[in-house]
Write a structure and sequence with these properties.
With about 375 residues, the protein is of the alpha/beta class. Helices cover about 30% and strands about 15% of the residues. Strands 7-8-9-6-5-4-3-2-1-10-11-12 form a twelve-stranded mixed sheet. Helix 6 links the parallel strand 5 and strand 6. The structure holds S-adenosylmethionine (SAM) and iron/sulfur cluster (2 copies). The site of one iron/sulfur cluster (SF4) has 11 residues, from helix 10.
């Protein structure tokens, strides 16, 4: 990790997962320009969770034993409105955020999501550019929604797809969704104008790892880019064990044996997926090795939860309640100051420090914070 820089931001109160409000100095204003954290990492990406609900119950994310019929999801009144989301996102964009990803839960369950996309598409960075708008979805509702989202201004799509084998796919989503629905959704997205769609496959040993090569083979030579993701110890309910992780290096070895691949340069600094290309020119794949090859040193992502808590790490145990500030009438300068203070105090590097002790912590669930 780089050395810590001196703390230059406004001190904030320690907030908890269950709701601390950043303490605001009267008349506080955000510093000009981009925000950097304790290790000099620039705030560049914002992930916004628009719902904590999901139409799937992926066993590694929302196991039915925990997210069953009686699970209490957030009430509608707790959710940030589209106006509130856009206002917060506007502050981030004004301070250098160039990429916004909508996620969840399943973001396509949020009603009128295309309206939110249209509102976010109006934002401009200080240099007059529109931030890139992306979305991660399980794809089950994409057939109907791809076109309106595209027309509203969504730039890019990531579709999660853990297996092409219908039985394995149904077992992993645990709601009996056929894989054909997601494949149809991906096709519809292509027809709606989305290019270079990313396909995320979370690999779990003994569950779907025999599908690594078939998944790559299916999308080889197509405009889609498959990314293989190591199963992570997000949240506290997915029964994570290191033995279930298929290391990225093993994925690469299997793909190399099957097709012949070679490393490709990153598209930009801080890109989470390591890129590999087929030697025969049939495109590329990505490998995201959060467990075996952490990338905290370049991590530039902030996460805004459905109810407006700001998290500075996917594995955080607490967030900062921006919704309370919004609903108490904070002005934009004050909101910016709070965000600057939160990011300025950030020293997260969970994946680099992962140990038996950290795995057991009560962390935020992936479906709440967004992937
Ligand atoms: N519901 C949407 C979807 O599945 O694409 C968006 C939210 S989901 C939480 C975002 C991403 O996180 C998905 O690609 C999912 O596969 C991934 N994910 C969820 N739990 C994970 C885990 N324990 N380890 C690795 N990736 C995980
Ligand atoms: Fe839902 Fe996505 Fe989690 Fe699966 S990974 S349960 S689709 S939020
Ligand atoms: Fe970023 Fe936290 Fe993941 Fe490290 S563990 S890469 S700091 S989100």
């Amino acid at each position: 990790m780089p050395k810590r820089t001196a703390r230059t931001t406004i001190p904030i109160a320690d907030s908890r997962y269950d709701g601390g409000v950043p303490a605001m100095a009267p008349g506080a204003r955000a510093p000009e320009g981009v925000f950097t954290d304790q290790f000099g990492r620039r705030l560049h990406d914002l992930r916004i969770s628009v719902t904590d609900r999901c139409n799937f119950r992926c066993t590694y994310c929302m196991p039915k034993a925990v997210f069953g019929r009686d699970h209490a999801f957030l009430p509608q009144s707790s959710l940030l409105s589209f106006e509130e989301i856009t206002r917060v996102a506007g502050i981030f964009v004004a301070h250098g955020v160039e990429k916004i990803r909508l996620t969840g839960g399943e973001p396509l369950l949020r009603k009128n999501l295309d309206r939110l996309v249209g509102m976010l598409a109006q934002l401009r960075t200080p240099s007059g550019r529109r931030p890139e708008l992306t979305l991660t979805t399980n794809g089950a509702l994409l057939r109907r929604l791809a076109r309106p989202l595209r027309e509203a201004g969504l730039d890019r799509l990531t579709v999660s797809l853990d297996s092409l084998d219908d039985a394995v796919f149904r077992q992993m989503n645990d709601v009996d969704c056929p894989v054909g629905d997601v494949l149809d959704g991906i096709a519809a997205a292509g027809q709606a104008g989305f290019e270079r769609i990313k396909i995320n496959m979370v690999v779990k040993r003994g569950v779907n790892d025999d599908g690594i090569v078939p998944m790559a083979a299916h999308f080889r030579g197509s405009p889609c880019i498959v990314r293989f993701i190591e199963f992570m110890d997000v949240g506290s309910s997915n029964g994570w064990r290191l033995d279930d992780v298929v290391p990225g290096a093993e994925v690469i070895r299997r793909l190399d044996e099957a097709f012949g691949i070679e490393p490709a340069a990153p598209n930009y600094r801080g890109e989470v997926a390591r890129r590999w290309r087929y030697r025969d020119g049939a495109g590329e794949v990505g490998v995201i090795s959060s467990v075996t090859r952490p990338f905290c040193a370049d991590c530039s992502r902030a996460r805004l939860s459905t109810e407006g808590k700001l998290f500075t790490c996917l594995f955080a145990t607490h967030g900062h309640d921006l919704r309370a500030l919004l609903r108490n009438g904070v002005d934009d300068a004050g909101l910016g100051a709070a965000i600057a203070a939160i990011w300025g105090a950030r020293d997260d590097r969970y994946s680099e420090l992962r140990s038996d002790a950290t795995v057991g912590l009560r962390k935020i669930e992936m479906s709440y914070i967004g992937g």
